[in-house]
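Case study.
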Amino acid sequence: MGKPTRFPRGGPAAARLALAAGTACLIPTVLGAALGLLGWLPHDPTAFVAPAHAPPGPDLWLGADALGRDLAARLAWAAARFAGPALLAVAVGGVAGVALGLAEGLLPGPGDALATGLAQAVDGVPKLVTVLLVAAVTQSDLDWIMAAVGVSFAPQVAEPIRSSIERLRSLAFIEAARGLGVGPGRVVLVHILWGHARRVLLAQATSLLSFAVLAEASLSYLGGELGVQEPAASWGNMLALARDGVFRGHWLPALAPAVMLSLTLLGLSLLGRGLLEAVEEPR
Amino acid sequence: MTPRPALSLAWWTLRQTAGALLVLLGTSAVLYAVARLAPHAGPDGRVVAAAPAGARPAEGLPSYSEWLAGVVRGDLGRSTAVQQGRPVSDLVFAGLRRSLGLAAAGLALSSLLSAGLTLIRSRWSDPGPASALSAAAHLVSALPVFLLVYLTTLAGNRLVGAGIRADWWDRPGWFPFPSRDDWVPWIAAALILAVGDGLLADLFRRTQAEWRAARAVEHRAGARLLGIPDWEVRVREALPGLAAHLSRRVSFVLGSTVILEAALGWPGLGYLAWRAAAQRDLPLLLGAAVLMAVVVRTAGLLAELVRRWADPRTGGEAP
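After joint prediction, the assembly is written out as follows.
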């Protein structure tokens, strides 16, 4: 046998670093969304305020896009108008996933089998195809698309809840709580969901949010009337509009949404990783 | 401890297949329900909760029982828009042949990269470079597939164009539009699938966790005494978890294939699904979705087989 090697593993310091880096990556998006929601934008994001591809200046922080609209205002507006649908996706995914996980973990025989079957049936289709199906029938209504994202993520949210219930329900402190007369609802909500599954649930929420951003941006970039339509702004359709300008040397209109999108996805990935590393038991 | 009842391979396969068919039945019901019952856009484009049956864009879809009977017979209906009148089964099976290889290559490449990165990381005792490696994998993997396609096409065209102008090489047949029939663009596309949309970061993380867990198993010392190589014990210990995780990522990779093929305009199942959604061709979209669900479920069955082979205890195999 070879010499045993020391495997560098994540620990509290790595988890803290991932959480801090993830939060830092998300600052521009959160700031942009806040400015957009408060309406504190230098220009109307749909107004033609400058010549096409005007360079950055004091009035136009990032310059203008191919149609002469304020690039910075459109970036912030895209973040702001996606905030609501993204939260909807998280809410739908959270509620459906928790309900499914509780059903799988707590219901007796046939109920458990039904819930598990439902989770497997939903999980059996690629999430993006479910999203395409809903985008096709609702003619790209973003709220419904995000609801579909939430539903398609529900089995993934349900899994850690089910395993937490299985792992914890025979443990002494749950028995003790029951013995002290604590109701099953409180045991599930306080001792299982809040006490032991909250960080895993938060990590799942970051994955869900990440997929929601990815799905919206991808559909908007590809066009075909499936994503966000002009003149409304999305980082995906901003990049699609700017992609040909790159060949004429106009990098910024393509670079800015690409950087915002990548930073957001990286931030969410790091946050999820940090949360998971924080809950991982040392082996 | 009570021993688990022995299961013959035939009985086990039969049971797994029956379970998979039941799940597929559920999946088909979910898909059909979404196509039929989801709120549809009204004539003014606004989404309404219930549109009159005739006004729904689900035209071309028979009742669920008729549709399901057709699916069982291999008749998925006819395309209503993308290739009007052509049998959906012909279109989706032709597309599947093209897409499956790409998705499998993407997943295999991602697994190899993750395994390589894990081995490199396990050899470094200094946490600095190990963390830098992990951060680099996360950074590249955070890029979405469509953005990687755009950046790769841009960089490839610039590089090849510069080479042609400098007489370094002749103009490749696929230039400036990458074609899926040439191996250079095909490998680049598989690499994009392997890295993008967070796949590499996810597999890297999971491979590290499984490899770490495989080091800590109690029977390692016993196996060493029996002369079994250490690497074999660790691989067999890590394989079931990794296979299960990979089978779950098949669904995700197929989703990424939709984006990749749509971005490159490459014909395949993903491109068909995207065009069907854009043109509201519901029979074609449902056909593509059902076929993808079959692929996902088959991958799950294969993972179960690997688990049974690598760890006979989980399969209930007779001693």
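Observations recorded in class. Confidence is low (pLDDT under 50) at residues 45-57 of chain B. The domain at 3-42+58-310 of chain B is CATH 1.10.3720.10 (MetI-like fold). We will return to this complex in the next lecture.
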